[in-house]
Structures
1.
Amino acid sequence: MEQTIIQNDRDYQQLKKWMDPNHKILLVCDGSIGFFRINAFFETYKDKVVRFTDFQPNPDYNSVVEGVKTFRDEGCDALIAVGGGSAIDVAKCIRLYAGMPGNGAAGAFLQQESGDTGIPFLAMPTTAGTGAEATRYAVIYYEGVKQSVTSVYAIPDTILMDSSVLKTLPLYQKKCTMLDALCHAIESFWSVNSTEESKQYSKKAIRQILDHMDGYLANEDTANADMLMAANTAGKAINITQTTAGHAMSYKLTGLFGIPHGHAVALCNRVLFPWMTEHTEMCGDPRGAEYLKKTLIELAGAMGEDTPEAAAARFEELFRRLDLEIPCATEEQFGILKQSVNPVRLKNHPIPLDEETIDGLYHCILRTK
């Protein structure tokens, strides 16, 4: 599915053009929109833009149901999402569920098959990390249980890239979101679901991230714009392949230690990457161990290195250069971690990981109290 990418300009002329056909728009956003230039633009369209802000990070299904109700009650016929992964995921689900019968009570929308509602949908990412604007996936929670919603009809038709939103991000958040995008591209490259198309997206994203990292961290306008595009490209890669063990092992780190997602994923991949280079003979990818070895060499090339070992060392050097914390864990916490990993996510990893191996990896990922 091809997306149209439009750029920010002085007075959002391209966005105005997108809004021209007399749409009434549901704008899904959180409080951060007040810090962005685009907020003033939407203030001039109060007659045709209805704001929906009733959701939290890790959004709840009931928030989506309320969003669908607002969409219907206000007579909306188009969607705009401005924000990070949560805002975009909520809007994706509203798009899918708005065409379903009923009011979604008792999880009813989750039980129905999604189709193409034809609702015009524009997303504007406000971080350069998740790539959510490029994927068919959304995550919401129903009665405290994570629900992975997947549909090609969730993908926004149009993306607005406005690099001015990155100017006010704290440096630590910029580091974490950049690492999320880089890990998306790396994991997609070695995923058992990789294709030639996904690898091209991965290579492009990796090169964009590494080439523009310094300028992005220095908050230069051009580099910020390039990093937004890199995150989008990495999102296109994982839209094909999904993520692998680095992501699967990261989620509980965020839960136990309160570290942001991109930080947690990088902690895992800085250990997984060199471990994989030493264990290619254990390959579970149907394409075989030689294919995996070749893939890791290609990945090294995308990172500007001659060997997988050198590429893994470069990732480690990058992590240390960003001066990110490595948490300490108790043996009780290690026990929780090794049992927390989603086996579905692990199926995408090219080398099978059993509980004992996962435990050993976590002992390398974290410091021991």
2.
Amino acid sequence: MGDFFVHESSYVDDNVIIGDGTKIWYFCHIQSGAVIGKNCSFGQNVNVSNDVKIGDGVKVQNNVSIYEGVEIEDYVFCGPSMVFTNDLTPRAKYPKGHAGYKKTILHTGATVGANATIVCGHELGEWCMVAAGAVVTDNVKPYSLVAGVPARHIGWVCECGNRLGDSLECSCGRKYKMMNEGLIQL
């Protein structure tokens, strides 16, 4: 057993790996096969489904379900009540199971705002930011700021979270360059 905290109201299935320093708060369920990194925080009523992989330093706010097929890299932020999907055409009568799930990847540092929805089968680039309430129906480029329904690119953000101007230089000192796949940090 590692050096992590699980509140007594939460349930952790067998065959789960939880990294040191991670905190799992009230009414959470971590399902079998889940792997959670170090120094993560899971707020109230979070569900981590079977075989989900979560990196280090991830923060998941209240009322988030991370379904099978979702992969979360390091330092990702999932805002309160944001939603993941894993099946593009679900039917209660005709479940597809594992084979029908579409993979969704949140790359290092991505932020998803409160009540946003991430439609499955997409990738959120490094250090991108999805605005509260947005519905992501396509891939999001690294450092891109997206908002709306459906989510559209409205600007660029620094790794520190500040919105970038035309110079692509942040007040924190980081500088960026435009590439086809999005911004890259210089």
3.
Amino acid sequence: MGREYAEKILDIIDKSPTAFHVVENAKNILDSQGFTGLKESEVWNLAEGGKYYVTRNDSSIIAFTVPKKDYTGFRIIASHSDSPCPKLKEDYEMDRCGYVRLNVEKYGGMLLAPWFDRPLSVAGRILVRDEKEASGIKSLLVNLEKDIAVIPSLAIHMNRDANSGYSYSFQKDMLPIVSTSKDSNKDRKLDSKQDSIKNEKTAATIMSLIAEKAGVEKDSILGNDLFLYIREKGKVWGVNDEFIGSSRLDDQECVWCTLDGFIDAANAGGSDVVNAASSYVNILCVFDNEEVGSRTKQGADSNFLEKLIDRINDNLGRSREEYYTAYANSFMISADNAHALHPAHTDKYDPVQSPKMNEGIVLKFSARQSYTTDAVSAAFVKKLCEDSGIHYQIFVNHSDEPGGSTLGNISNSHVSINTADIGLAQLAMHSAYETAGVEDVDSLRKFAYAFYFK
């Protein structure tokens, strides 16, 4: 099961190059499982036993199942849809020095070196004129699915310090080449049809390719959110096929594994049985913009989850007092990947509690509260794992290394309930290509199922 399920996860990650594609693919999966899509701008009429989802900005999604009206609390798992990568600026084509390059900026805390000398493509969304829409504007997903760009390294002959610790300038070093200059052949006499065709192809722009892919006129495009991604597909590797390598493992591993566990719980024994027996509203959140601080209308620091819980409570005719008691009886899991022990840099890790790949989910602690786990929430997670036969391990930072943070505490400032931070152990976090364990993905799916169903 381990390898088969890992390959399923790699396949959906490959189909999800941006947060917008994550949400679109999640919607398609939920639709296939009988969930009903809602809109924040419309009146809701929730039914007992119902299965629903709602999106915001097309890059965040919350799905939930409704049990009896006298539910006792909420069970929530939250992960994030975004990953660090280069983002195209508004005016992003630069024609200089005989090349056309893309003017990009950092989205999130990128590990820069792995982005060099790899085939790259562009994906995201565009906003186009469409008079059939009430607003006159329509949002379209786009993915060029073509090797169109490379960020070239400077040869060692011209940068003798390249292997001694080079400090990259993103504006100077990280702009990808997409073609030769559009003007490079303008004074050249075109004597043949072949030369004419060659010059026409050279003059193509990224936006013209995007418009063609989306099936719209280039002039109809009013706005865009476009990102670079590497074209290399995820793979199972290792002498014993024990590792997976892919871009965007942080945090799409958690997105897809917890979504599968959420759906398994919703379907266990038939939806009528589980919803009649459950005393919790089960909620799955996938927030955007975690990698840049979550402080957006669709991030964990927004009111998205808080207002959704309010609407569920009001829609089911419960009083505010009942709402507060359910709130106090709720629990959240913040699911975001963790650092696996790196064999070449063990001095960067805690000498005792350093997770390894393929040894189960990771429960994360931090005295400075960058992770939400405390004694109460840790006890809940440990008991759930032990009762369900799920392996778990502990992560704490080296005492001299502050480490990173997750969306858990940010979300907790709006929805203040007992919360634990978990994840899957991985190497090269925030690289263009990351490594994790084959067996761990199924452990997280099982954990999510147990959390929602038991």
4.
Amino acid sequence: MPKLKTKKSAAKRFTKTGTGKLKRNKAYKSHILTKKTTKRKRNLRKATMMDKTNSKVMKKILPYI
């Protein structure tokens, strides 16, 4: 079986935790920040886990991470 290539765009955005889950950063933090509350912007800074429904596909895209 040939080697699998890692999708580099996904590799830059996701990291694997010790238990094998995928960690990601939240979206909507790049621009139009004036109308967003301080609390909302602060919560967008925190990383979160990848949803279980997407994780199966993401593990195919990221075979070695």
